[in-house]
Amino acid sequence: xxxxxxxxxALADAGEARVDWADGQMPVLRSIRERFARERxxxxxxxxxxxxxxxxxANLVRTLAAAxxxxxxxxxxxxxxxxxxxxxxxxxxxxxHAVRGADADAWAAHVAAVVARAPRITxxxxxxxxxxxxLARPDLLDGLLGGTEETTTGLVRLRALEAEGRLACPVLxxxxxxxxxxxxxxxxxxxxxxxxxxxxxLLLAGRTLVVLGYGWTGKGIALRAHGLGASVIVCEVDPLRALEAxxxxxxxxxxxxxxxxxxxxxxxxxxRDVLRAEHFARMKDGxxxxxxxxxxxxxxxxxxxxxxxxxxxxxxxVEQFVLDGRRLNLLAGGRVVNLAAAEGHPAGxxxxxxxxxxxxxxxxxxxxxxxxxxxxxxxxxxxVAALKLASLGVRIDTLSxxxxxxxxxxxx
Length: 412
What we know:
16% strand
């Protein structure tokens, strides 16, 4: 095991308290950990994880370790790293390479350190580990049992690799599991607005919030903003999603038109330059710009700086750009706002997401999957949903044998 790299080992006690608090909100993962401790399904398996280093992730690491895995962790986004949590993971014997605010070179070195452990299973949040293995360390690909991917952006990368015939292992698309949609819709929906409100202290009621992208995350942001009293406008390029937004009572406009009326803009498309110079030119004084997509490319920050007459920090994590007398306020440098400016998804919803990750890792150890991107098996989705319902004290009906037979037959 390589030596961990964290900001300050003295933060471990504070981090441990934070991890324990999150554990109290994660009963599904805890129940899986208890089973894993008995059965040890990952005994001796090196697991490389490139995820947001938060208290919830630390509980996933605990669970994998209970299963017998040797886990090496690095940050998928250094600006989301909780330094006290990283210190707590290291203090308990885990290998972690994560420092909040690490620059690009340091972050790349952290990823390389995890790759160098020759993981047999990877857990990715943006395909960084698998990309590095394929590009920089193809000599380690033979030992891979497989990986998981938790983001849309990462799956785009991996499917492109698969289309070229170069993806060397099976990957379970955790991001597309049915229960993972709760993470997008309810987790990002709440935590994105949490990040915006923490940094600005804005009253959303009576304001116009523009959501650019109406995937599962965009739906969650729109729903929560509407619940706080904002008027919501949706911008889309997909006619099916645009129609869905309209039929869910949201106004749908092209982004250039929405730029003229919005007060708060949130990009969540997975694409680049969604908001750029022509949009900035139309925005009203005081507009707030935030990104909830995985990478900081959705807002053209270079273009914003180029056209600004002046730039200053007016609040922590709020940069104010003055363009022709109008003040545009960029949050968290255009990085993913729910993690860079808040604490990310609540532990209660990450309970579902990381339960999926743990069970997906167990599935990969069983083997039998060919190289390629695969859906998470339905039985895993159902197991996680059933465990979460039980933890909430919710009971549901079951079909009788006669009802099951009727449902499966073709004669009425």
